[in-house]
Design goal:
The chain has 304 residues and is α+β, with helices and mostly antiparallel strands. 31% of the residues lie in helices and 16% in strands. The chain has one domain. The strands form 3 sheets. The protein has a 4-stranded antiparallel β-sheet, with helices on both faces. The chain has a 3-stranded mixed β-sheet with strand order 4-3-9, with helices on one face. Bound molecules: iron/sulfur cluster (SF4) (2 copies). The site of one iron/sulfur cluster has 14 residues, from helix 5. One iron/sulfur cluster binds next to helix 6 and helix 7.
Length: 304
């Protein structure tokens, strides 16, 4: 597909298996209640096309690069990476147009779907799980944006099976050593999402007191396990494809948590790129924590 994208169809009846799998992991305590409530509870598994018509989910994996916010703190500069997977608006527009073109010849329809994208991409064979529970994709590593749409395409017979794990993980472990928060345990494959920096810095409110200031490494999310992975060497996601350069005043406003309307355009664009429009307080808190951590540990190994 165009620009290295990968895609797959999943017939709607298969979604029941995905939903059951998540429920059984919740009941077994493998997924914590708070993580379920925040990331998994609101999925909608019912086809908008009803039970009588064929329907399927189209899953699109788009390799993307990263963005960087250059901040002027007065006494020093600070670079803050927005990891690949936080979605540039242009990519969403491109993907929607691409799907429209693909379906128009057959007269098929589509509409956005809110579903567990990682599970679908793994079960359709688009990607394989790494030890860090993040999918790796051929030629793009883990730096991929996943999106899904409902379609009325009959996808019976499309590829489907159990999620697979990278063979390479058996003799590696680089991600487990890179994690600053002890999210990996020996006795189970699932990482402890409640300790993962991404789940902590995507949520509002103060960071827990146990969190090492050293661990902050990005404007949002965490790159440390992915940066350590040999599957991510030389992929597009390593490149900075967008750069938001903020002067001293714009930096101060962003760090103060000003809303988009009160930010200079470049700072408001950075907020959108981090998918935090309307949540300026989260980006402000993260950037302050990153600045503080870097001042304590300016030469962190593995720094993203
Ligand atoms: S760093 Fe190594 S163990 Fe971790 S996901 Fe990558 S290949 Fe697997
Ligand atoms: S994203 Fe960061 S905190 Fe989460 S498992 Fe990976 S290294 Fe650990």
């Amino acid at each position: 597909m165009e620009k290295g994208r990968l895609c797959a169809f999943c017939p709607s009846p298969r979604l029941l298996e995905v939903e059951r799998d998540i429920q059984s992991r919740l009941e077994a305590g493998e997924i914590g209640e708070s993580i379920y409530a925040r990331y998994l509870k609101d999925f909608s598994y019912a086809s908008p096309y009803g039970l009588e018509l064929p329907s399927s989910v189209f899953i699109l994996a788009s390799p993307i690069g990263r963005a960087r916010i250059d901040l002027d703190l007065g006494d020093r500069k600070l670079e803050a990476i927005i990891p690949p997977t936080y979605c540039p608006e242009e990519l969403m527009a491109e993907n929607t147009a691409l799907l429209g073109t693909m379906l128009s010849d057959s007269g098929s329809h589509c509409q956005p779907a809110w579903l567990p994208l990682k599970s679908l991409a793994a079960r359709t064979g688009l990607g394989r799980y790494g030890r860090d529970n993040i999918l790796r994709f051929e030629g793009a590593g883990s730096y991929v944006r996943l999106d899904a749409w409902w379609t009325d395409v009959d996808a019976a017979g499309e590829s489907w099976g159990p999620a697979q794990v990278l063979d390479r993980c058996k003799a590696c472990g680089a991600c487990t050593s890179a994690c600053p928060n002890g999210c990996f345990t020996h006795d189970r494959f699932l990482v402890d999402a409640s300790k993962c920096l991404t789940s902590l810095n995507e949520a509002p409110g103060p960071f827990p007191t146990w969190l090492d200031p050293h661990s902050h490494n990005a404007a949002i999310g965490c790159l440390l396990c992915q940066e350590a992975c040999p599957e991510n060497k030389g992929v597009r996601g390593q490149q900075v494809e967008k750069n938001f350069s903020l002067d001293k005043e714009a930096t101060a406003r962003l760090l103060d948590g000003c809303s988009s309307a009160d930010l200079p355009s470049e700072a408001a664009a950075a907020l959108r790129a981090a998918e935090l429009s309307g949540k300026a307080d989260i980006l402000a808190r993260n950037l302050r924590a990153l600045a503080h951590g870097r001042s304590l540990y300016p030469k962190r190994a593995n720094s993203a």
